[in-house]
């Protein structure tokens, strides 16, 4: 059986089993809660093995793709369940899986109220994400795009913190609204293709060759761009991010920050720059301007926050500004920089959210004014916090800097003044990161607060692995870079049994 | 317009107006019966004798009698008619009256272009109606029977607990 | 053989730092001290071995070693690559030897501090980062060291994090150096765009053979200069160094005297070919250097805190180095860098010992008359002071300053094709700077050691601390002989070592030039003795110092301007972002709330419609009928 | 047989319909509403028959029969409800009072 559909379906099946496991004993004894947790862990391990199989056992007949799978779904409409994996999707799926492990080890254990359902939704989101990264049939892509949204909404709405309803609703509204814009563009593209060639198909490869008038292609491209701009958070439409991140439970905000933001970036690479190359190049100045605005705005806003998670959320707006800048630079170097930035940001921000979550579990507050210095009480947690804050501010030798440098270099080729302004964004980045460090880690301990226990060794080991990955991404990114380049559309001849 | 036709139409309209303006229910019902009879005259003039007969027998005969029977049962006394009077003050009927007048004007305005030649209507006998009723519309007759059955059951069910009254 | 040693050289301190961080306090203070000193000691030994290998090799030989490809992308390639040539040789010797001495001193100084593990972890990490910076042959790899050094200085300045002022000072230091780093990054971006790779050799070759446009060269040079100025706390960015004294004294000695602040000097010396092509930037460097040395001198004259005097003196001395770089005599700059590292480290360590024994009292006016209580420290401090002032013949400072002065005298700036100006005015101001230096350092010496006794000193300086002081004394007194001015027996070992190709001997140098350089420090010493040395003058109020202090206060006022400017900028930024945040929250949230309220009001309106009254519905149906008919009829 | 043109019947039906509508809207007593409703029904039936006469098609009268049946059922159910409400202690038979949907 081809590995790709298994890769997509395994998480949700695992989730189902976890839900059932969670509900076997009506009263949520620790055993039942752990049962669900163990099932999730098993699912993740199997998923990783499967992914390793796909990565290293290269399938011969998959043509230019790393792996290919196609099965007609609605032949009348030309819709097929077509999953294709290339370097880009593989690296992002690896990122998602890598993030799930610390998430499971550090935070999902604390979920007591109906843990089974929590784990099911957690894995359902993962399925949605993996599906989004693999689908090369526009309809299937949209299906997974919406699928990953619903469990995340429920996760935030039920297990979130004090103001979770409003946050979940804003999150859902923004993403759903923009998703519909994308649907309109998809249908527009399909119709344009049908009208010119008489073939009704949703297949990415054939659609990428439709002759489009400049105006129409720009319109469709902007439709797609809006959906990904909301998800990536580009500045004007980022309003949902701080609320959603702050109110989401730790595991959900790690998923949200680590993976869901990357689907926006992935979408832009796959469905903007590669599907409408000329429109994208014409749209590039605007997008790059938005990117730089995002960098400065996100950094400036996070400088003024008192809530830890809100600060980290705004910092991701700033980092994603680099991704946007990189993607629309038009050069392969910019693209590689954007991908590296996505990978590095995924790791460092997810770790920061885990640490913020750990602080909140122990001190029941996220307000930096009330947390005070934790270095004396929790040296391990604080040292990890300082490390990832430093990674977030773009310390060379760590992951973020590699991405940011390549993006800046690509931007410099295009327009030096813009690149200088973007580089200037590194100063406020240092400001908010160090302010955070000096308010909650390296500061005088707050008298009134009873500090909780430090991170247990096991969880610290997991964080140490993430640290090692960030350092490796910083010092030896070469394998990641050559490995994670998207397959250019030109030689996407499409699998032999492509959609009819 | 022939004198008889004018007379019949005038009685129908006057009857209708009287129905909606009476305070006492019984008077209203009787005026309604008069209206229906005038209407059957109009139907005859249209050449639909079978329909006219039905109107007289079923509508005026059966339904109106039912009306009278129910109203008598309600034995609406003096307070009821006093209340009707209070309900009929101009403030109450001015708004709907205007609205109904507008609807009437629009209908009349719409009807004007359809004025074809006043051809002598060839009467359609009961024979033709019977043929088409059980020819093309036999299914509809079945459906009507269902409708009647439903009405019967509902009326019976609602009326049944009259004395229990919970 | 050397190719294997160089990466090991960097690895030793790094490994020591990792061991210390991972052990997190399981090792006692002594254990942490020994691991740190061992790490840096190994690095020192290795650097000596490597220097012997290099010097025995060919004159212009250099050792290149590429560890692994870092970023190979279409249009740009960077590797983690180290290079050892004569410039970096001098630097690694300075960094490792001075670093070792400071670590040994710190083992004694910090032994009763609970956070000693974190301290030594950061210190060894700093040495590793500095070595990466110095040895990197790829400018991007240099940038790793550059930022790593900035991070470690932030962690160490804010070491005693209980007091928010310390962490604020640390953040301020990081922000200001970060501004410089961004400028440097822009410079690197510009060079990478034009030359495709940031290897030093490739960049310098591309610049010399004209591959980079003239404007590009001067722009890149300007950006790199800005980065160097911020890192070395020169005039526009000097506000953070005095505040950086909040850190422990060994940190101030290592980072803010010997190594980090000189990173900028090293970078410009390393890229002197690039700067030679950008004449206006060279002139700017010289002018800024001169300005800084004057500002530093004046400010140091009016400080009352012992460590702040030394901080301002560092700024002033680095100003000398920038002046030398601006005038093209980068060998003199590096020589001064080396001697400065020795005597400034000595001064800081001696000051640290004095402060520790005077129960953490840092105000020189309250210290007073310590020569009887601490004879050893007095000798050390006086030695350092004389080297700093550059007393003739007997101290290293004299020779390095002499080399700079002669270089400045002989330079000729070709600003534009036909208008060129000689370095004489700069030379004069440098001389004035030397006078000021002697003045402020001996003011401090007389007040602290020779005034009337102030606080009572306690305890003894532990043996661990005296050994480094001794070594540094010897180095700062006799370290200078290896480079003699021509009039004296012309011995040019150092410049020969650095750049054998271009001999630096100016045969026609007038004798009075060297004499001037010798007399000025003595004059400064004499004036200082008159003002603060003689018991009588001390009588009528030490603080006014015979009226000289008052006048200098005015002079020093405007050195606070950038200081106030930066705190104001920080406050402005914070207030602006808070206001923007409220505005943003106001604006966008109002949008959301406004949308929500429309929904509510609309719902309310509709609700009233459905009041359950049949006639009301009938009326609406009739109304709908009217509208429909009207539309049908009219259209 | 005197001619009764199609247009005249339409005029008559329109007036009857609007009178019936006014009755429904004005009268709050449910009985009167039912009666007005019957008037409207008859107006509609009249139009059907007139159309049948005009185009000489028996369907008009078939529809008339159906409307009769409909009117019968509707009156029966209506009156049953009225009786129920009346007996249930709501003498006023006010159409507006019965808006709370409970039994």
Molecular structure report:
The complex is a heterotetramer of chains A (500), B (166), C (635) and D (103). With 500 residues, chain A is mainly alpha-helical. Chain A has one domain (3-485). Helix content of chain A is 72%, strand content 3%. In chain A, a hairpin with a 4-residue loop joins β1 and β2. The model of chain A is unreliable at 494-500 (pLDDT under 50). The radius of gyration of chain B is 20 Å and the shape is globular. The longest helix of chain B is centred in the middle third of the chain and has 26 residues, at 49-74. Chain B starts with a helix and ends in a 6-residue tail after the last helix. Chain B is mainly alpha-helical and 166 residues long. Chain B has two domains: 1-100, NADH-ubiquinone/plastoquinone oxidoreductase chain 6, subunit NuoJ (Four Helix Bundle (Hemerythrin (Met), subunit A)); 134-166. Chain C is built from 26 helices and four strands. Chain C has helices at 2-23, 29-56, 86-109, 116-135, 139-157, 164-195, 200-208, 214-231, 240-243, 249-258, 263-270, 272-277, 279-302, 306-326, 330-357, 364-367, 375-389, 396-410, 424-450, 463-478, 493-498, 511-533, 535-539, 548-557, 561-609, 614-634; strands at 63-73, 76-84, 412-414, 420-422. In chain C, the strands form two sheets. In chain C, strands 1-2 form a two-stranded antiparallel sheet. Chain C is globular. Chain D is mostly helical and 103 residues long. Chain D has one domain: Helix Hairpins, CATH 1.10.287. In chain D, 73% of the residues lie in helices and 0% in strands. In chain D, α1 packs antiparallel against α2. Chain D is elongated and about 50 Å long. The chains are: A mainly alpha (500), B mainly alpha (166), C mainly alpha (635), D mainly alpha (103). Chains in contact: A-C, B-C, B-D, C-D. Chains B and D meet through α1, α2, α3, α4 and α5 of B and α1, α2 and α3 of D.
